[in-house]
Fold this sequence. Notes:
By secondary structure, this protein is mainly beta. It has one domain (about 5-255).
Amino acid sequence: xxxxxxxxxxxxxxxxxxxxxxxxxxxxxxxxxxxxxxxxxxxxxxxxxxxxxxxxxxxxxxxxxxxxxxxxxxxxxxxxxxxxxxxxxxxxxxxxxxxxxxxxxxxxxxxxxxxxxxxxxxxxxxxxxxxxxxxxxxxxxxxxxxxxxxxxxxxxxxxxxxxxxxxxxxxxxxxxxxxxxxxxxxxxxxxxxxxxxxxxxxxxxxxxxxxxxxxxxxxxxxxxxxxxxxxxxxxxxxxxxxxxxxxxxxxxxxxxxxxxx
Length: 261
C-alpha cells in the first residue's frame, strides 16, 4: 500500500486589543489589529492607530503580522505571529510604552509525525507602569526555549517543583488544576519575576491586584500539544469599573494532515 501523502496546515493569528465592559456602562470593544493566517501559509499584516474608547482605554498604534512558509534550507515548515502595541493606556492605571507578543514555530519535514518546536522569544514589555509606578518584569525565556514542545513541558512538570507549582496552581489559590496528562493543557506564565513598589498594589505569582481597579495578569501561556496561546496582558476589572479584556495576544501552531492514527 502506498504511503499516505501528508500536507501541512499552518495556523497563526493574533490581535492587539479587545475588551468587554459591563460597568459603569455595557460596551464591547471590537478586536483591534486582528489578523489570521490561512492554512496554506503566506503573509498578513494589519495596523491601527490612535484608538480610544472614552476614558477607558487607548493605544497610539498597534499591529499584527502572521506568516507561514516552507524553509527549503533545512526542510522545515515555519510559522510566526507577532503582535505589537504601543502607547497602551487602561483606565490611566496600567500603561506601557510598548508590548510585544511573539510566537514562532518550526516543524522539520522529516519529523511530521511529531509536534513542532514552538518558542516565545521576542515577547517583552517596555516601560510597563501600574498607577504611575514602574514595573520590573523578568521573563523566563531560557526555560521556555527548553520547553519548546508539549512533551518537554510535561517532563519539566515531573522534575521541576517550582514549575509544577506554577502550572498546577497559577493563581496561588490552593486549588490545583488538572495535570496536563489529564486535560491535555497547561496554564503557566513567561514571568520569572516581577516587582512594583506602589501603594495599593499586591503581587501573587504573575498577577497584580490593584485596589479599586481589579487584577492584571502578565504573560500568560496556555500550552497544548502543538499549540500555544500567549497573552501579554489580561485584565479583570473590579469596582468602580467592571469588565475584562486582553492586550497583545497571539496563538500559533502547525500540524500535518491527516493526523497520525
